[in-house]
Structure formats: structure tokens, C-alpha cells
Amino acid sequence: TFKEVQGSATGTFTDQAQTVTYVYTKAPIAGGDVTAKYVDTDGSKISDDVVKSGNVGDAYTTEQKTIAGYT
């Protein structure tokens, strides 16, 4: 997406070098969700899943939960 132009987009040539810079922002691309699952050693769910959403290239973090009765 076009954001801005730096310098004069039109003008006349001079004996000095001139630069015109067109600045664009990258359109965000939705990334696939990251799901943190909390299970016991048998694979049984012991706490609600936590789902993180973001765009491709974004950082994410998940957390270890303290769950009563489990270490």
C-alpha cells in the first residue's frame, strides 16, 4: 500500500542529483493460529487451550500454566 513520497514527484532537472523515494507498507498477511494445549501424560485435556492469532512474521509467546494437581 502506498504510504508517502519523499522528495518532489515533479520538477525540473538541475545540475545536482535529485532523489524521489516512494514509500510503501507491506500488506499484512494473516498467519495460521498457534494453539497451546495443556494435557496430561495420557494426552487428556487438563486445562483450556489458549489460541494466539497474528500476521506472518509476527512474534508470539505461549505460557506454562500452573494446574492444580499436576507438576
Secondary structure tally: strands: 4
Query: What's the tally of helices?
Result: 0
Helix amount, in percent? under 10%
Mean pLDDT: 96
Strand content: 25-35%
Major sheet size, sense and barrel closure: 2 strands, antiparallel
In sequence order, what are the helices and strands, one letter per element? EEEE
- Large-scale geometry: rod-shaped
* Assembly classification: single chain
For the biggest β-sheet, the strand order reads: 1-2
How are the SSEs placed, and which strands pair?
Elements: E1 2-6, E2 21-24, E3 34-39, E4 45-52
Antiparallel strand pairs: 1-2, 3-4
Would you write up a description of this structure?
The chain has a two-stranded antiparallel ribbon with strand order 1-2. It has a two-stranded antiparallel ribbon with strand order 3-4. The chain has 71 residues and is mostly beta strands. β3 and β4 form a beta hairpin. It has one domain.
Task: Name its key features.
two-stranded antiparallel sheet, 71 residues, rod-shaped, mainly beta, two-stranded antiparallel ribbon, single chain
Entry summary:
With 71 residues, the protein is an all-beta fold.
